[in-house]
Automatic annotation (TrEMBL):
A Pfam family of this chain: Usp
Phylogenetic placement of the source organism: Bacteria, Bacillati, Actinomycetota, Actinomycetes, Micromonosporales
Protein name in UniProt: Nucleotide-binding universal stress UspA family protein
InterPro entries: Rossmann-like_a/b/a_fold, Universal_stress_UspA, UspA
Species the sequence originates in: Actinoplanes italicus
Family under the similarity heading: Belongs to the universal stress protein A family.
Residue span, UspA domain: 6-140, 148-279
Length: 294
């Protein structure tokens, strides 16, 4: 069984390199080893046409150079960090999802919308988030300032507790504050009251009550609250201009990958201006079987 580690996937491009830098710094904060992975995208069903194995050998050598260089960059950035590296052979989504089973955190890069072709295209990053078995960070956007807080989306579900756990623990670890965001829909409220100061006050009180045990547990973490009638995705995307990380849950059910395409998590991944950490919802065997690597 592998030692728990922060795992980062990289393909040698700038987005992949940015993911390695972020993951190396985070692994150091967590006092965990960093495992750098390059996935050699190889379809064994057609490999029979590579009669002498020459193409595979060449691709493998290139993959090894890529992952070694990424590991060297991570070590140069954090000399005290324990850095491991490996080449996984297979499909990127399947391979990274499998590696996530023994990871504490999985980081991937994102080209964002309109990016050039490649396996770190946004759709693949989103599929990795959908299938991973640990929290996933999609590294994107601006470099964080030393005092930039952690933003977290908070709703009324029981699944908000693991999200708050991650947000407050991360903020405590980095010595920064938390910005807790609550979005409420006017349809819940009496006609004419949507967005009024009174409604905002009610929603802020609900959010404040939700945060009481976390403030008690992390008294050193400053907390700001924000309520909005805009969507949680739009609000978090706007807040992300001044945060180091956005933390949110993934509340898709059943056919996980299909539901995920319309989720708030996907919208935030497309629009955020800083890295986004998605905390996975615990899945049943049935959920995992239905959604596996579609």
């Amino acid at each position: 069984m592998q030692t728990p580690a922060v795992v980062v996937g990289t393909d040698g491009t700038e987005p992949g390199t940015a993911a390695v830098r972020w993951a190396a710094t985070e692994a150091a904060y967590r006092r965990l080893p960093l495992r750098v992975v390059h996935v050699l995208d190889w379809d064994w069903s057609v490999s029979r046409y590579d009669y002498q194995g020459e193409y595979f050998d060449s691709a493998r050598r290139l993959a090894e150079r890529t992952v070694r260089e990424a590991a060297r960059r991570a070590k140069d950035l954090v000399p005290s960090l324990t850095v491991e590296f490996q080449v996984a052979v297979g499909r990127p989504v399947t391979s990274l999802a499998r590696l996530s089973r023994s990871a504490t955190l999985l980081a991937v890069g994102s080209r964002g919308e309109g990016g050039s072709a490649g396996w770190w295209l946004g759709s693949v990053s989103r599929r990795v988030v959908a299938h991973a078995r640990c929290p996933v960070v999609v590294v994107r956007g601006r470099h964080a300032g030393p005092r930039d807080p952690v933003a977290v989306g908070v709703d009324d579900s029981g699944d908000a507790e693991p999200v708050l756990q991650v947000a407050f623990t991360t903020a405590h670890r980095h010595g920064v504050g938390v910005v807790a965001v609550r979005s409420y829909r006017p349809a819940r409220l009496p006609a004419g009251d949507a967005g009024s100061p009174e409604c905002d006050s009610v929603e802020r009180d609900l959010l404040t009550a939700r945060l009481v045990p976390w403030r008690a547990r992390f008294p050193d973490v400053p907390v700001d609250t924000l309520v909005s009638t805009d969507s949680v995705a739009a609000t978090l995307a706007e807040v992300s201009h001044g945060t180091r990380l956005v933390v949110l849950g993934n509340h898709a059910h059943g056919l996980f990958s299909a539901a995920f395409h319309g989720s708030d998590a996907t919208r935030v991944l497309r629009r955020a201006h800083c890295p986004v950490l998605v905390v996975q919802e615990p899945r049943t065997r049935k959920d995992h079987h239905e959604s596996t690597y579609r």
